[in-house]
């Protein structure tokens, strides 16, 4: 799902909705071959006291994600650049992993869209016009929509995991972790070159909140991206709910 969210961030930039961005690079970030992940992130990891075994944690996380059958996700994405320009995208995602069916509905700068994915076929409706395409046409694979497979693919890019606290998300008690990713490896996993991005930075952190079953309740990250020559910052905040509740997803007629 992370790549799906990243795709929409790139779309907002490539449409020219956020311009006049500051490209001075005052963060000290380095640039390299094509990529999408940037050098901003979540919480300050702080001391090493809360650092845990990455391999074991990822294995437990994958095992928990493999149990997910259905889930509802609300994603808010803020894309900003220099000059005070800003765009907000909101998406609601329903997943039926066993049925290999996913539904996405939202709005990009006042233009509504719906996307239904059944297997490897994508039905995309932008403001009333429906197109049918393959996941491959979006530069994605079905594994990238599957929660367990998506996490497994990120394993080699995760360099550090730290437990930073316990908080409630939507009334559910959770453990709050900060994950550090290697940018170059993450871009290889996301195949960001196919999305016309430019890499910035060496590492990026993200915040994730997990319940007592290690189910994701919230995931937040901030990345720097470049698309169509425009540089900007994308902050994505995804809130998860309704694990295991029935959901019906059908291809449009």
Write the layout of secondary structure elements.
Elements: H1 2-14, E1 31-34, E2 51-52, H2 54-65, E3 70-80, E4 86-96, E5 101-108, E6 111-118, E7 121-126, E8 129-134, H3 147-154, E9 158-169, E10 172-182, H4 183-190, E11 198-200, E12 203-210, E13 216-227, E14 230-241
Antiparallel strand pairs: 1-11, 2-9, 3-4, 3-14, 4-5, 5-6, 6-7, 7-8, 9-10, 10-12, 12-13, 13-14
Helix coverage percent of residues? 10-25%
Coarse morphology: globular
The CATH topology is: outer membrane lipoprotein receptor (LolB), chain A
Radius of gyration: 18 Å
Largest sheet: 12 strands, antiparallel
Number of domains: 1
- Low-confidence parts: 9-47, 193-199
In the CATH scheme, the class would be Mainly Beta
Give, in order, the helices and strands. HEEHEEEEEEHEEHEEEE
> What is the first-to-last residue Cα distance?
25 Å
Instruction: Please tell me the overall pLDDT.
Output: 76
Please state the second-level CATH architecture. Clam
Structural class computed from helices and strand pairing = alpha+beta
Write up this protein.
The protein has 253 residues and is of the alpha+beta class. The chain has a single domain (2-15, 29-241), classed as outer membrane lipoprotein receptor (LolB), chain A (Clam), CATH 2.50.20.20. Helices cover 16% and strands 45% of the residues. It has four helices and 14 strands. The chain has helices at residues 2-14, 54-65, 147-154, 183-190, and strands spanning 31-34, 51-52, 70-80, 86-96, 101-108, 111-118, 121-126, 129-134, 158-169, 172-182, 198-200, 203-210, 216-227, 230-241. The protein has a twelve-stranded antiparallel sheet with strand order 2-9-10-12-13-14-3-4-5-6-7-8. A two-stranded antiparallel sheet has the order 1-11. A hairpin with a 2-residue loop joins β13 (216-227) and β14. The radius of gyration is 18 Å and the shape is globular. It starts with a helix and ends in a 12-residue tail after the last strand. The model is unreliable at 9-47 and 193-199 (pLDDT under 50).
